[in-house]
Amino acid sequence: MLLPSGLVASGGETVGSAGPRSVDAQYQECLEAYVVRARRVEEHSLAADWSALVVLTEMQMSVVQRDDGEMWIRQEFPAEEVVESAAVRLRPILLEGTRVSTRRR
How far apart are CA 41 and CA 86, in angstroms? Predict the structure, then answer.
């Protein structure tokens, strides 16, 4: 089994750059890193108001027809900087192969 810090040797220890460590210690380290990352995501301003976040997932748009017959479609989004900073906080959790990833090979 390949874990983030190295290969598991017989006897439940891993061999990495820092020397042998138990599998339990590796999992504990990954879990602690995940909790820290999850707390950072939870503290983001987009996550502060759950109902507002849910509204963003509903893709509400308004369609306006002008007097000259031209149609306008409008959808409001949060500021780009806010979305980008949320993505930066979520990225390590979503990508495969990071210490805190929820996706394992």
Answer: 7
Phi, psi angle pair for 82, to nearest 5°: -70, -45
pTM of the model: 0.56
- Pairing label, strands 6-8, 2-3: antiparallel
Inter-axis angle of helices 23-42 and 80-94, nearest 10? 170
Task: For the chain, report the end-to-end CA distance as a whole number of angstroms.
Answer: 10
Cβ burial 12-33 (10 Å sphere, 16+ → b, else e): ebbeeeeeebeeeebeeebeee
If you search the block for the tokens 């990833």, which residue do you land on? 101
Count of residues making up the chain: 105
Is pLDDT above 70 for 15?
no
Please state the separation of Cα 65 from the chain's center in Å.
Answer: 39
What are the residues whose beta carbons fall under 8 Å from the beta carbon of 7, sequence distance 6 or more? 14, 15, 16
